[in-house]
Specification:
single chain, 165 residues, alpha+beta, STM4215-like, 5-stranded mixed sheet, 2 helices
């Protein structure tokens, strides 16, 4: 399963569990007919590459959107959907969906749209396997020295980071 598919599945699962007031939580493209209300339908709006350094994996920033629709008169539906949107915003704080390939949600925004609300956020996603670009230096070979005990002749004073914990 691709990182993007994992993200979509994790968003659906987490929102279903965390927000039981929602009768329906589905990803766009799930053809389940007319969803029971209140409903949240989420999907990816856009993706862009990012040059930020990580662990050798490519970084893609996905913009996701969740549309929340409730029932009742227009005013009642808008109010109820707005309350649910606020709960989604709270849930998104530092949300990585339990996936190692996803960093915390950021740039969260919500807005009313008629009787519905939408919540939009960015989600950094690391694509592909992590890579170690220094074949002559295996992972874990980092050693730290502290002045004045650094440089040639002081290597026996160096410590591995894990020994400092």
């Amino acid at each position: 399963m691709s990182e993007l598919a994992q993200l979509q599945a994790a968003v659906t699962s987490t929102l279903k569990t965390a927000l039981p007031a929602l009768a329906t939580v589905i990803a766009e493209g799930d053809d389940s007919g007319q969803p029971a209300l209140p409903a949240l339908v989420h999907g990816v709006l856009r993706m862009r590459g990012d040059e930020a350094l990580r662990d050798g994996r490519s970084l893609m920033v996905a913009t996701l959107q969740a549309r929340i629709t409730a029932q009742g008169t227009a005013a009642q539906a808008r109010m109820h959907a707005g309350e649910l949107a606020a709960q989604v915003i709270d849930l998104l704080r530092h949300q990585g969906w339990g996936l190692d390939c996803v960093e915390g949600a950021r740039n969260i925004l919500a807005e009313a749209d008629g009787a519905s609300w939408w919540v939009q956020w960015e989600q950094p996603v690391l694509l592909g396997p992590s890579q170690w670009h220094w074949p002559d230096q295996p992972p874990g070979s980092l050693m730290l020295g502290f002045a004045p005990d650094t440089g040639l002749g002081n290597q026996d004073h160096y410590r591995a980071p894990e020994d400092l914990a």
